[in-house]
Amino acid sequence: MAAEPVIEVENLWLKKNNQVILEGINLRVMPGDVYAILGPNGGGKTTLLKVILGLITPDRGTVRILGGPPRERRHLIGYVPQLRTFDFSYPISVREMVLSGLLGRKAGLLKTFTDADTALADKALATMGIAHLANRAIRDLSGGEQQRAVIARALVGDPQVLLLDEPTVFVDASTETRFYDILENLTRSMTIVLVTHDIGVIASHVTKVACLNRRLYTHESRELTEDMVKEAYICPVDIIAHGQPHRVLRPHPPEE
Q1: What band does 112 get if pLDDT is binned at 50, 70 and 90?
Q2: Are strands 208-213 and 77-80 parallel, antiparallel or unpaired?
Q3: Is pLDDT above 70 for 133?
Q4: Residue 198: predicted pLDDT
Q5: According to the model, what pLDDT value does residue 245 have?
Q6: Which one, of 192, 238, 195, lies nearest residue 31 by Cα?
Q7: Has residue 8 got a pLDDT over 70?
Q8: Which of 85-94, 106-115, 233-242 shows the highest mean pLDDT?
Q9: Contacts of 204 (CB under 8 A, 6+ apart)
């Protein structure tokens, strides 16, 4: 029997203020995939992740996660938003931050953590190679260490799907390389969707890749073709740098 998709998006449309944000999106992510989604700033990448999470309801189309609606499957999904969305000045330890990833599963107003919860947090920290930092203040960590802590927070609930939004934007090259090594280890137990601007690094770490700029341009392999990039970015592209629309491989043809 053929495997069922982990994530299935069919004919998805989303508008905001009468402007089309996502147009006719079709996406199938299979078990064990590391699916990279690239695209320009404002192209809808983060919005698509939030639709998959069930945080945004589309105007048209369907989304199914592990065979069910996103909101019913959210406990099976780990989500790592962009690092700039976190306030790392808050006075908590690394372990406390990771434990906060379990709050959505706690009932009642007084949400307390058990010894079993702490064990889960320590396991996630060990997976990310920062168990020795558990009692450190999150604000005292380097950018790369904070990144690992944020991913550990997403892993603490033992998700089957991991969504990563620009996870290497604010880290240096050596930290980025270590991150992708860790990512490969995670693929043994979960399916990963990775939003990124980094074309150069992903080629050897992903199984499939697509470009998103309102519409999704897919290619069912890890190869990123020039045609895909030209369709999504409206020009030839070498590297997609965060905060920059594009860098071109050659000069644009003159306008007619």
Answers
A1: confident
A2: unpaired
A3: yes
A4: 66
A5: 39
A6: 192
A7: yes
A8: 85-94
A9: none
Q: What is the largest CA-CA distance in the chain?
A: 68
Which residue is associated with the tokens 């280890």?
Answer: 185
The CA distance from 55 to 57, in Å, is 7
Ranges assigned E (strand) in 184-225: 191-195, 208-213, 215-219
Alpha helices (H) in 187-245, listed in sequence order: 199-202, 226-233
Q: What is the mean pLDDT of the chain?
A: 80
Residues 6+ apart with CB under 8 A from 129: 148, 178, 182
Which phi and psi angles does 252 have, rounded to 5°?
A: -60, 145
Q: What crossing angle do the helices spanning 115-127 and 143-155 adopt, rounded to 10°?
A: 130
Residues in the chain: 256
Burial of 63 (0-12, 13-18, 19+ CB in 10 A): buried
CATH code that applies to domain 7-233: 3.40.50.300
129 to 134, 181, 192: CA distances (angstroms): 11, 11, 19
